[in-house]
Amino acid sequence: MADLKAPVFKPDGSSGGDIKLDAEVFGIEPNMAVLHQVVTAQLAAARAGTASTKTRAEVRGGGRKPWRQKGLGRARHGSIRSPQWVGGGVAHGPSPRDYAQRTPKKMKRLALRSALSARASESAIKVVDDIDWATPKTKQAVALLEKMEAAGKILVVISQLDGAAGKSFRNLPRVRLVEPGHLTAYDVLWSDQVLFTTHTVGSVGRSSSYEVSQGDFVKEATKAKTGGEEE
To answer: Given pLDDT bands bounded at 50, 70 and 90, which one contains residue 206?
Structure first.
């Protein structure tokens, strides 16, 4: 299998070469069935499940029969709180419930690796060196994304959401921030492009952390100069 690579950018947006991606995380064949099941379970677990209605037994009033059974030419009724009456109880209405589905950890990890592999196959994975901005400024984040040519919805995976980088990105409407330990398959599928840092790119999709080494970086070779011009 050919080495998977992703472009590396410096905090100012300039190119910093390429980085090798872990083939076990970014280079597998996506399992669409598991991916669908895990994402469906995640969306189901996000439901509040607090919708509630009252049955005819729970609605106040209606204890007396509205009129006698026979002799008036009207339909027979035993309570003004039956479902067909305005203000009556609801038949088969919703009641509070838990929508959570049990999903094994192995399925969650496989779904995340499948989503990351799908984005890697689309060249939608980008890596930036550790952002060392002294102060948080939104325009710094905008300039970085523009130089990286990151368009659409962008998922930024950083270590500290309350740091200068997190505060710089969090005001952008098309950007979602997440820590590597909280990254889910749905987050990856929501985004058009995924932006990692050199520290977070190796800590997702595995039961144990994968540390990025210097051997994973492929720096751009120095361009030969001939006649005072770059080739």
So the answer is: low
Does residue 82 share a domain with residue 156? no
**Residues 81 and 126 occupy one common structural domain:** no
Q: For 33-61, what is the mean pLDDT?
A: 94
Q: Output the CA–CA distances (angstroms, integers) from residue 61 to 44, 55, 64, 93, 204, in the order listed.
A: 36, 12, 8, 19, 58
Range of the domain at 57: 48-98
**In 10 A of CB 75, how many CB atoms?**
7
Average pLDDT, the chain: 85
Phi, psi torsion values for 143, nearest 5 degrees: -65, -40
**Structural domain includes residue 121:** yes
Check whether residue 117 and residue 193 sit in a common domain: yes
Residue 40 and residue 116 share a domain: yes
Q: What's the pLDDT score for residue 213? A: 43
CATH code for the domain in which residue 149 is found: 3.40.1370.10
Distance CA 112, CA 35 (A): 8
Least confident segment among 92-96, 122-126, 193-197, 212-216? 212-216
Residue 155 corresponds to which amino acid?
L
- Which DSSP string do the residues of 40-106 spell out, in sequence order? HHHHHHT---------TTTSS---S-SS-SSSSSSPP-S-TTSTTSTT-PPTT------------HH
Query: Domain tally for the chain?
Result: 2
Question: Are 191 and 133 in the same domain?
Answer: yes
β-strands 217-218, 15-20 pairing: antiparallel
